[in-house]
């Protein structure tokens, strides 16, 4: 925990005292953002459709089919969209970051950077941290949009729910705060995944076997961190909502 805290401290220091150049950042944006879009879109689409299917069977017994829209929308934008996007990021990008930095660690390339008088945190960690921090909310937007459309398709086109009331009920019960709350969660999830992946890679030992263990450990730790953060942030955001919105 101490070494990880020191890495976070150095990363935040360089975040405000020396941003990476465009030449360094563009490949990270491409790897973390563009290449992750397909898996995020697929995950979001099927999540929204499954929610619509399950909700329809429950709500149709009560005659509340038009409430499928708000349920799908709220579930996707507040919980499933950010969490599943972060899971995909941890499994695809986080594992790759750990394997890359772990290989550099066991082959002493990180030590070589230190020997040159450079801070490896600035050149190796900061670009990946910054890219994950900025792009995870954008990836979550993709996931949310596709998930909502997938839920609408199943509810309206397959089960025959009235499209007008589907969207009308959604607009009544869903607020801008709900959308922003989910994007705020994604912001923290992205930062956590990047830090954990970089930390596990930086302190990899034991050759090729060590790289494999570090990659596995990085993915599992990221998943657990995302779930814990989701709980804490949900409680905090609910308290903020009650204090500043329900009290008015």
Order of helices and strands: HHHHHHHHH
Report low-confidence residues grouped into runs of 5 or more.
Answer: none
Q: If helices are DSSP runs of H or I spanning 4 or more residues, what is the number of helices?
A: 9
Mass-distribution shape: elongated
The biggest sheet, with number of strands, parallel, antiparallel or mixed sense and barrel status, is:
none
Return Rg in Å. Answer: 21 Å
Assign a percent range to the helix content.
Answer: over 70%
Protein structure class: mainly alpha
> Quick one: how many beta strands?
0
Average pLDDT works out at 89
Query: How many angstroms does the end-to-end distance come to?
Result: 41 Å
As a percent range, the share of strand residues is: under 5%
Write structural notes for this entry.
- The chain is mostly helical and about 250 residues long.
- The chain is built from nine helices and no strands.
- The radius of gyration is 21 Å and the shape is elongated.
- The chain starts with a helix and ends with a helix.
- The mean pLDDT is about 90.
What keywords describe this structure?
248 residues; mainly alpha; 9 helices; 0% strand
Protein topology:
Blueprint: H1 2-17, H2 22-32, H3 37-59, H4 68-106, H5 109-115, H6 120-158, H7 163-173, H8 176-202, H9 207-246
Helix pairs in contact: 1-6, 2-6, 3-4, 3-6, 4-6, 4-7, 4-8, 4-9, 6-8, 8-9
